Every structure is written in C-alpha cells, then in structure tokens.
Amino acid sequence: MGAINQDIDYHKKALSSLKDPSLLIHDAFIGGQWVATDKKFDVYEPSTGMVLGQVADCDLPDFQKAIQSAYDAQIKFFASTTGTSRGALLRKWHDLIIANSDDIGTILCLENGKTLAEAKGEVIYAASFISWFAEEATRSYGVTIPSSVPHTTLMTIREPVGVCGIITPWNFPAAMITRKIGPALAAGCSVVIKPPSETPYTCLALTKLAVQAGLPAATIQVCPTKNRQAATEIATNPLVKKISFTGSTAVGKMLANLATGTLKKVSLELGGNAPFIVFDDADIDLAVEGAMFCKFRCSGQTCVCANRIYVQRGAAKAFVAKLVQRVSALKMGAGLNSDTTQGPLVNKSAVDKVREHVSDAVAKGAKIEVGGKAPDSPGFFFEPTVLSGATPDMIVSNDETFGPLAPVFEFDTEEDAIRLANNTEFGLAGYFYSRDVSRVMRVAQRMQVGMVGVNTGKISAAEAPFGGVKESGYGKEGSLYGLAEYQNIKSITIGNLDAGSQ
Ligand code: SIN
After folding, report:
1. Angle, to 10 degrees, between the axis of helix 116-136 and the axis of helix 83-99?
2. Predicted confidence (pLDDT) per residue in 351-387, tens digit
3. What is d(CA 304, CA 431) in angstroms, rounded to the nearest whole number?
4. Rounded to the nearest whole angstrom, what is the distance from the C-alpha of residue 331 to the centroid of ligand 1?
5. Is-catalytic flag, 269?
6. Whole-number Å distance between alpha carbons of 383 and 299
7. Which segments of 220-278 does DSSP mark as H helices, in order?
8. Residue 77: C-alpha distances to residues 28, 65, 70, 71, 238 (Å)
C-alpha cells in the first residue's frame, strides 16, 4: 500500500491554483446576498487534519430570514416561469458546472478528501442531475379523468410543493445537493439548503454558478451551520412544505418526527448495510472488479457501499486471493496527489469506527488478509482492509462501517445467502453476481432493498431511481420519479358544463 506522501501545505498551493478563485466562498447565501455572519466554523482538510478555511455559522434568525425569503421568491418564481424556461435555466447552470468542473473538483477534493479523479467524476455526476431535471421540467403532465357525473370534466395539474428544506451529507458534497435541488427547481420550488459542515465549500460554489446561470437568487438559500438547533428550523417552520434529507437513520427519524408537527412532505435517504453476494457460478474477476468499485469508492464512505461480502464456499478462496491482490495495490494519500487511489476518511471518529469494527471482528475470529490499521501519519487515514472468516455475530455484520473495510463471509446455499442478506433493518442497496438467469431474477426479487446491482457494483445514475426501503428511508431521487417528490397533484373538477346550453 505504500507510505503516505504528504505535503502539509498542499491545500494552500491547490487553492492558489484555482482558475476562478471567487468560487471559494466563505459566506452564507440568504435573501439573494452573500452574508458574512459574525460567528464562523472551521472546515478541515482531511488528509492533513489542518484547517482549510472558516465558513459562516448561521443562527436561528438566519434560517428564519432565509425561509421567509425563499417563500416570497417561490411564489414569484413559479408564477413567472414555465417548465420550459426553468429547464433552460437549469441547462445553463449545468453548462457552467461543467465549464468550472476543474475548480469545483479541486475544492471538493480538498474538503472531502476523495481523490481528484473521483472528485471531478462526482462533479460530472452532480451536473447530470441538473441536465436530467432540465428535461423533466418540461414533462410534468397532468391527466384528464372520465367523470362519473354528467357534464363534468375532471383533470389534474401538478404544482410545486413550495419551499423545500434540503439537508445533505459530506460524502457527496456536490451530487447530493444537485440530486435534490435539480428536481425542486424544475418543479418551481425554492430551496433552503443546510450543507454539511464538513464540506460546505462545494455547495457554495455551485450556488454562485446557479445565480450566474440566471436562477432567481432568492430561490436558493444556503445556510451553513454547526448549530443543530438552528438547523432544525428547516423541519419545523410552517413555511417549509417539504424536507429532503440524506444522512444517518437516527437523524432521519428525528427530522421525520419534527416534520410531523406541520405535516411536511418528507424524503429520506438513510443508512445502508449493503450485502454483496458472490455465487459460485459467478465470473469471479467481474465480482472482484465490482467489489473494488462499490466497496472502496470514496474510501468506503457511501450509503450504497458493500458492507457485507458473502461468497459461496466453493468460490471464497479464489475471490479473497484476487481481492487481496487488488487491495494491496491501492495507494493511500492526499486526494490531489496524482498517484493516490484512496483518500482519507472524513474525520477522526470515522477512523475510530473502522478500527473498532476491525478489532471486534478479529477478537471474534476473523483474519486480516491485508490492511487492518490506521497508519501513523497526519490526517484521517485507515488502510484498505480485507477480512476473511467474518461471522454474523461481528459488529460489521450489523452496523454500517462507512470505511474501507471489506469483511468476507462464507455461505453454502442460495437460501442462506438471501436470509443473511435480508437479516438487517436496512434496505438501501444490494448486489450479487451470478451467470444463471433464473437465479438472477429469483434473487433480485427476494432481496429486501430499494436498489439491486446484478453483476455490477455501479448502480447510481441520474436516470436510475435512487432510494431505499425498511429503515433506509423512503422517497425516490433522480429518474422519472424524482420530480413528483417536489410536487402536489391538484384535481380540478369543472361541473355543469351543460348550463346555459338551451
Ligand atoms: C450516497 O452515498 O448517499 C450516494 C451514493 C451515490 O449516489 O452513488
């Protein structure tokens, strides 16, 4: 895996190389203005643990002002635009994101830690939600319904829900914002965003480009904060009609409870504990490729990461050997270094969690095949790790590691694999590898998850419905379903159409 090559001043050099330095913004965006609050919080660069910068720390009055301003703006926005014109604005925003993808990728890489290649890839992925919903904005259809009452026409129209509260995580600082606000703006809503306090800079840069694209400034409000109490205003203020949250199941449940007070619409994309099953009829090389992608992308910090790798006994030895070979070749380091393939984790507690999962598994009989420890270096690194001999009593079987740890469990029959895979309260994503077409359909139907990857570890795309079942949340993002999450259906009944016909 090699030593970590770090230059602790590298983030300063990287920031001074931005083509457009004005994209690095430290202020909140409230009422169409950049606002420098008195209070600030530190944002860290995870590969060194050093402070990257200080960002506005919004208080309750800032949230209240942002929500009121978003409310006023939304009414004008919807009244003065059509789906086509909103689509055109989103298209311009998309083009600006692409034109500035090097700078946004650098900012994202610095605050999140993922490699520059992954960071730029995320910016392109994030932009794809904007172009997708630029198109969907024009396809917001109602229906006409044959009425049971004579001389009556019944129809439906779709209307924006109003102000949307958007709360997003640090693991995808760009894509989780655009996957939510793309459809919100396409529908004619306005948004109040609480970006993650670990990675607010990407959101602020995207907001600047949205305004540059011509989106009415007050339709997007951004309130960075470390003050959880202030942020809960998003879930309780009666002017907010919908909240969309991506993050932990515990916080999702808390927000859903708060939102009940004013009966807001709620979408929740929460924790996962994804099973990754390799049957003995699988193409093992393909399965290893898929595991590398879906386990080690973002250093294992995605909600759809494989958390439990189940391999049928006959294939286990070959699978582990090939996986270990690939993992041994990974190179940890700062995201901007060109030879880095594994960035740091987001903070110290993320490293501590992986360490705890490894030591619990080892104490219960697992074997470390590669990795297994945090290197003695600055920053928040943990070696990419493969464990064999994992068993259901280990923490890693029940709790999402959110780090670069691949525990391999062995199983005997298809029935066992399905039972093990479904034995969790979570139901976000699941993966399996098989060349048997009957098995493919059988297992895909029986997995209790919102998204299944068959013979692939890549399931995320703007056109693919994203979301889970069970305690992984509800609501679908992206896809042909994503727009409706930000709309109300209104029925219009026109009666007595024969009146005055004599
Ligand atoms: C997530 O981790 O929540 C998102 C992952 C993705 O979009 O692929």
Report:
1. 170
2. 999 999 999 999 999 999 999 999 999 999 999 999 9
3. 10
4. 23
5. yes
6. 9
7. 228-231, 233-236, 249-260
8. 21, 18, 10, 10, 20
